[in-house]
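User: structure tokens for this one?
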Amino acid sequence: MTLLSNSNQQDRFIQRRITIQIPAEYHQAPILSQLATFYHLKINILGAMLDQTGDQSGWFDLEIQGESQQIENALLSLRENNIIIWGDSTQEYDGW
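Assistant:
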């Protein structure tokens, strides 16, 4: 029997559904575009609530697809930038 190495576990393709709160100071920042570009993720916006004036925080309900480690790195980056992550759920995704 062969066990999968930790690196193989990190490279598996998964899908995560998260809800994030974007603080008002990031209202004009391309947060989702940067996640997709820097971490090679596919991001689907399932819902959003944004204030047009930028005076309040906004919410996004997202479905993120990509390699497990890339998603973990992206979520860490969000947390480091004081973006709150709620409702995080993970499922494996085989592409079919």
